[in-house]
Amino acid sequence: MKLKICGMNHNTAEVAALKPDYLGFIFWEPSSRVFRGTIPELPSGVKKVGVFVDASLEEILEKIKEFGLHMVQLHGNESPSFCKEFRAATQLEIPVIKAFSVGASFNFEQLGPYEAVCDFYLFDTKGKLPGGNSFSFDWELLSDYPSDKPYFLSGGIGPGDIDSLFEFMHRPEAGKCHALDVNSRFESRPGEKKVADLTKFKKRLAQGR
User: What is the domain-level CATH number for residue 82?
Assistant: First the structure.
């Protein structure tokens, strides 16, 4: 199970030293975690993910070039045709994560049109904001997951969820779970991560128990 730490801003280098698989940088102005500044040099193997919410193709391509992004996470209402246009513009070199908000229920039929135009799905908790709402959804809903596409599990995952995560990982619906995505519940303030908590969490995940 890979780890993505999202909402990076104030202490990126310190978090990157933990060598997570992915670091997420939010490029949505209304977010309290919107990234500004320069991304420091990261350890080998740590991939930079740009998070966008209904941004234009031009803006996304500009940020990819400016920050050397390895992947793009589309966290708004981006259409399948937009995803297709993006993949054509980048010649399939930049993988696409398409995010979906999950409430008390979720209609998995909406994934169908995206099957051929994105590389990963991400399931986050439906809330007032596109992400970073600090609470989780019922992971049992993923028992109806119909796709072979790998997905990121997001939405309010915190230090106290490790035992629940291990239980989830042993269920069939976790078979396509590519990575865990953590953010707000590991923060001292928006964009500043609690490195000690992340260290313990990552170590427990690696132990697998």
Answer: 3.20.20.70
